[in-house]
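Quick entry between incubations.
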Amino acid sequence: MRINPKTLEEVAFKLLEKAATSLPDDVKKALKSAYEREDSPTAKTELKNILDNIESAEKLKKPLCQDTGMISFYVRSREIENFVEVRKALIDATVKATETIPLRPNAVHPITRKNTGNNVGEHIPHIEWIYTDQDHVELIASIKGGGSENMSALAMITPGLGVKGVKKFIVDTVVKAGAQPCPPTIVGVGLGGTVEISFKLAKLALLRPLGSRNKDKDISRLEDELFNLINQTGVGPMGLGGKTTCLDVKIEYAHCHTATLPVAVYFQCWADRRASAKISLDGSFEFIV
Amino acid sequence: MVEYRLKTPLKEDEVRKLNVGDILYITGTIFSARDQAHRRILEYAEKGLELPFNLDGAVIFHVGPIMQRKDDRWVVVSAGPTTSTRMNSTTPKLLERFRVRVIIGKGGMSFEVAEALKRFGAVYCHFTGGAGVLAAKNIKEVEGVEWIDLGMPEAVWKLKVEDFGPVTVTIDSKGRSLYETVKKSVEENLKKIYQQI
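Done. Structure below.
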């Protein structure tokens, strides 16, 4: 199939704008119920500031967090004929969004630290193609800040330690991260696969709506269990103490080598900025999230 | 918990009396500085060069703002705090060389920084991470920018603020830290959590 690059660029720009200046309803709902649940004044103040900030950002159409992150696009569609054009459209949308929304230019060379000034660089924005058998294109834009990236971690658990080893590593990683990834976080977990697959799965888990559960019963039980354990740590909003350390735990899994058990923990700060749209072949589109 | 309205430049005795939990609103000028700016400030100090801004009695804000050029001036779009731990290694020296009195950021700082705050008379304050629009509301004007070659997030922005806050003192100059208090209770909770795993 062929995707009209003009439409795609327009939709990508709108998604970046929506993602930077508002939050999905599921995230706002989770933050509001966290505010209700907390009883310590410090935790309540932090959540109140977060909620007020979201409200102001949505009203003023300004980026709710100054760290407008690294940009990733996920294109779900049938096999695409005009791959090069589509890639260019997503890059052009990124440049335009950086200039006009505006987004903070964050892309720097890893050695020289020189900023490209437009959020475009080697392999950036990240574009991932997910092939489906649908007759439409689904475009997801994700912007993710640096603070939560810095605290993410991988462990190659000894398979003999089993699920206990997995749980301990995840809880320990949350505690070690403390205040730094801007809790309450959303904890994305990639379980199994290979080192490479585990982080890709953790990111896909983060793209799922809050409250959604893995269709595998053992995995969904683990999601619930970790959600409860992490919220018993007392790290709390912004790491200043409280009942809400995470808004959710979402896990995706893959089968792994019989000698390995990879666990990727990928933090998402409370500013869980993602937006998606369905683009039909006639060029019309609608927002999904 | 006491609320204070402070004006820059700050004096040592004004800051020494602050306690963990106090709420501050700051009026005057604050400077943005993060990783690269800290490195350059210390390089200047090493070489004996004069800084293009005055850090005497200053407030440093760990922030990489989004700025927009409108006609001939800069406008703040969003300016919440960044993770302060990245400045752990450079801050004790900064406090030793310059009379910085307040650091605003998020996530807390190390024991070495807390010791330096105590020794040189300064405090560390918390502003809600990610609350970029709330922070921008209290910034009245961009007075100037230095070291823009470091890029928009890493440059030093001179920001005119009015009642910038509420910021909470989370590490005071008496060696007390809210992060240490939380850390202790988390360690206790962790013992109970391990039993359930």
